[in-house]
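quick one before i forget lol
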Amino acid sequence: MSLKTRFMPFLFALFVCFFAVSSDTFGVTTVVVVRHAEKVIEPENRDPVLTEEGVERAQALARLLSDVPIQAVYSSSYQRTRLTAAPAAKQAGVEVRIRDPRDSGGLRDEILKGHSGGAVLVVGHSNTVPSVLAALGIENPPAIADDAYDDCFLVLVPDEGEEGESFLLHLHFGKNSGD
């Protein structure tokens, strides 16, 4: 296990906790945005479950967020997103909230009104994660490749009335998607 692999979860948790706990001082809402984990490929099935690798990645996400005070977890209604979100939601003691993945603006409003100054997890799809990032104030959000499952986007959004722009930190978690 490389040094980067061993310390990335710690550094990530430290970074998120710093901003989540210090939100009164900084006026920041922390939003962690990921794509669902690896899914079973079945051409006739529009709602597949996770593969074994996907289940492992969902557990890796929960481990990554284990020290983060997550207030809410959002997912689309598809099994692959709900199953990716479930371990982190269980660990945080919250239910997975189902949202329409195409309504990024409504999701942003719900997060910023209901969880201002807190930390939230959003699990989406390769074609919805960029629009969620854009709705959170990220200019030119990165595209997600069809075979990429290890992207983790940490977005720090200034609370209403606070100055500044949203900040994006692009990390990776679990096994590298290309391996």
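fyi Residues 1-7, 19-24 have pLDDT under 50 and may be disordered.
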